[in-house]
Amino acid sequence: MLSHIVSNSGFRPFSHCLLSWIRSTAVSRTHCLIQRPTFGLKFSRSWSNIPFITVPLIRTHGKPFAHRSELKHAKRIVVKLGSAVVTRGDECGLALGRLASIVEQVSVLQNQGREMMLVTSGAVAFGKQRLRHEILLSQSVRQALHSGQNQLKEMAVPVLEARACAAAGQSGLMALYEAMFTQYSICAAQILVTNLDFHDEQKRRNLNGTLHELLRMNIVPIVNTNDAVVPPAEPNSDLQGVNVISVKDNDSLAARLAVEMKTDLLIVLSDVEGLFDSPPGSDDSKLIDIFYPGDQQSVTFGTKSRVGLGGMEAKVKAALWALQGGTSVVIANGTHPKVSGHVITDIVEGKKVGTFFSEVKPAGPTVEQQGDMARSGGRTLATLMPEQRAEIIYHLADLLTDQREEILLANKKDLEEAEGRLASPLLKRLSLSTSKLNSLAIGLRQIAASSQDSVGRVLRRTRIAKDLELEQVTVPIGVLLVIFESRPDCLPQVAALAIASGNGLLLKGGKEAGHSNRILHHLTQEALSLHGVRDAVQLVNTREDVEDLCRLDKLIDLIIPRGSSQLVRDIQKAAKGIPVMGHSEGICHMYVDAEASVDKVTRLVRDSKCEYPAACNALETLLIHRDLLRTPLFDQIIDMLRVEQVKIHAGPRFASYLTFSPSEVKSLRTEYGDLECCIEVVDSVQEAIDHIHKYGSSHTDVIVTENEKTAEFFLQHVDSACVFWNASTRFSDGYRFGLGAEVGISTSRIHARGPVGLEGLLTTKWLLRGQDHVVSDFSENGTLKYLHENLPIPHRNIN
After folding, report:
1. What is the torsional sign of CA 254, 256, 257, 259?
2. Which residue of 7, 220, 457, 536 has the lowest C-beta tally within 10 Å?
3. What is the pLDDT of residues 310-343, one digit of tens each?
4. Three-class SS of residue 192?
5. Measured torsion, CA atoms of residues 700, 705, 711, 714, in degrees rounded to the nearest 10
6. What is the pLDDT of residue 715?
7. pLDDT band at 92; cut points 50, 70, 90
8. pLDDT at 275 over 90
9. CA 780 to chain centre
């Protein structure tokens, strides 16, 4: 209906079309649904694509929430819509699509059992639209009667007085809101106030009682300043104390209303993303994620928004006043087309949107500050001599063995707290031991030894022309974000690789390994302190969700997830503009050829499937050549799997050969991560390859055969990161490849593939050294010619 109004208005003014629609659809206020019906929830789902969430909403008002993650518990919420949010860009008329989206989000939250209130601007803009039309229509009639049609072009619209516009627009604005909320079986009620209403004690009590009664009846109060009669704001009357705030704009009105009604959350929507440390759009301006009382002294405020009475300074003053009164506040952008459709619900879900006002400062740095520290520390790390970076890693390896008792004690605390909460495979990943720490130390020493010629290695030299030489050299990627689950041994491995490659590093570990991660990070920073680069590796301990971290595209250059396939998929989905290195699944195949060795097959299958079934490089699908069915070799494989208590799932073809088959597989594209395995039958090596390409994940695939020609055909034609002949899938590992360690296994086709070690964390840059060379010298009439000669590469490090 809204699009019909906009696109088919023809010669009829927009305001006339809009008012006609309002009159035809608006429901009388006396017929509103005032109870909290169960069918209201069902109805809102059919109209909304916003996820429906059920959360406990019992909260005693007192102190504001300390962290964003607590906002989901907000029961009573005020949403303030700034003039820039409600109005169109020409300031004459309303942004209907934006308003419809806001009403949808408010309705969803209301139908979750929350108590929603709106403080809205827009009456002046709506009235201006109506009055402009009436004036133009009146002028056109008079001029047509006296001067003829040819002078209509010269008509000018006089300046319209704001109070008159508000009077003309208020009823239409409310009728529009009422019609929109009716679509979600929600009633809305209008309340107009002035500053005097808050100074008169009787009026304050009346207002408070009216609002509470409306909320009790499941009605959404829509509050606005009565701009038709409101007097000018008194100078220097704002923010007199916690009980007084001058209502001179809708920002102060929303703050006053939020405190009067003891609301849990005030959401202030404007046309900027939130509060910046300098005016938005200026060089070096950064969005402030969390704002604390007292921080306003370090902030420079820009001009006010294009419409409305307030600016960002007014919003901050109102927000701090509300915060002091016990209400949490978020200032966010309500106009951005990519986020306005879910900005309110995102805030309530605790997502990192806009600027959150909090009285509780974190004990350590924010994640943004940690990102800056990692960037700065990484750049210093990259300038160290290779021997210095290696010395740091050697020292870390020594600390892992010297401090093993402290490490194992911290790990024991994690295991005790995780007992009964984590599945057995995850507990195994969480556990550290003396042998694991010794293996870690050995791997770190391998990394240190191989890092001597990593950063600054010359890959190519070219003489472009006389005295103009070009070099391509290796450099760090920048700042890495590594997110890992349950595996504390991952921390020193990844830290060593980052140190060797000169990268800054942000680490986000699972809370189940909190004690272990903290001691290991402390030892890492102790090793880094040898050469003054302690800040290059940061452990993120704040409450940021992984999804929020994945949005920090200005701080992070590469995300590397280490964990379950679900974690990897979630990160790949959440990453906004940041490349993700990794694999979402490890569906590894082993093809047993007709010419396979009996002695080798059972050993390879057992090791691949049973040695560590939770690993991403464990066998998941066993492909058997048809000629091996009902042979002693096949029987040996089945007997071995039964002894190892591996549950077998039959593929469709395998099931067709059996009278009594195991459970038929639900999907041939399954990563079990446990003692389970799919068996399927194929007719040839080509059919095995086709199956792998169709159902595999391009991780690791193996052929078992004594026929070299068949094996080479398999090795060359299987398009996976790792392809083996007569070897266990479990060899797909950075340590076993001699890389010292790995940050993960990548199935990507860009940059790095397979186990990613030191080389995968480097990129390149080009260095051009000249002598006053300009491109015009190489033109058709120029004095120089391109040579493009390949030059020998020196065996040295540019550091």
Report:
1. positive
2. 7
3. 467 888 888 999 999 999 999 999 988 777 689 9
4. strand
5. -50
6. 97
7. low
8. no
9. 52
CATH code of the region 367-574: 3.40.605.10
Which residues are CB-contacts of 725 (< 8 A; sequence separation ≥ 6)?
A: 702, 703, 705, 711, 714, 715
132 CB contacts (<8 Å, ≥6 apart)?
Answer: 92, 157, 160
208/162 Cα distance (integer angstroms): 28
Helices (H), 702-775: 708-717
Beta bridge partners of 745: 755
CB 569 within 8 A of CB 583: no
Residue 27 pLDDT = 38
Per-residue confidence at 139, pLDDT binned at 50, 70, 90? low
- Assign 767 to helix, strand or coil: strand
Whole-angstrom CA distances from 524 to 382, 423, 436 are: 17, 29, 17
Query: Measured between alpha carbons, how far is 765 from 460 in angstroms, rounded to an integer?
Result: 11
Per-residue DSSP letter, 684: S
Residue 252 contacts by C-beta under 8 Å, 6 or more apart in sequence? 238, 245, 246, 310, 314, 317, 318, 321
Number of neighbours of residue 297 by Cβ within 10 angstroms: 5
* Mean pLDDT of all residues in 267-290: 83
Lowest mean pLDDT across 67-81, 148-162, 542-556, 685-699? 148-162
**Is the per-residue pLDDT at 563 higher than 60?**
yes
Asked if 236 and 247 count as a contact pair (C-beta separation under 8 A), the reply is: no
Residue closest to 548 by CA, chosen among 323, 373, 267, 349 = 349
Which amino acid would we find at residue 299? Answer: V
Which of these CATH numbers, 3.40.630.40, 2.160.10.10, 3.40.1160.10, 3.40.710.10, describes 68-139+161-228+246-357? Answer: 3.40.1160.10
Provide the pLDDT confidence category of residue 156 given band limits of 50, 70 and 90.
low
DSSP code per residue over 312-375: HHHHHHHHHHHHHTT-EEEEEES--TTTTTTHHHHHHTT---SEEE-S---SS--HHHHHHHHH
Q: What whole-number distance in Å separates Cα of residue 632 and Cα of residue 634?
A: 5
CA separation (Å) from 444 to 285, 340, 399?
40, 48, 11
Query: Domain boundaries in the chain?
Result: 68-139+161-228+246-357, 367-574, 589-742
Q: What angle do CA 546, 552, 553 make, to 5 degrees?
A: 125
Architecture of domain 589-742: 3-Layer(aba) Sandwich (3.40)
What pLDDT does 234 receive? 47
Question: Cα separations (Å) of 242 from 211, 346, 471?
Answer: 21, 29, 65
- What is the distance between the alpha carbons of residues 161 and 376, in angstroms, rounded to a whole number? 55
Which three-class secondary structure string do you get for 496-560?
HHHHHHCCEEEEEECHHHHHHHHHHHHHHHHHHHHHCCHHHEEECCCCCCHHHHCCCCCCCCEEE
- The residue whose two tokens read 């395995």 is 677
- By the 10 Å C-beta count (0-12 exposed, 13-18 middle, 19+ buried), 258 is classed as buried
**Which tokens in the block code for residue 470?**
């070009």
Query: 104: alpha, beta or left, given left = phi > 0 and alpha = psi -120 to 50?
Result: alpha
H or E element: which one contains 677? strand 676-682
CB neighbourhood size of 183 (10 A): 17
Entry pTM: 0.73
Rounded Cα distance, 559 and 540, in Å: 14
Say how far apart CA 169 and CA 172 lie, in whole Å. 5
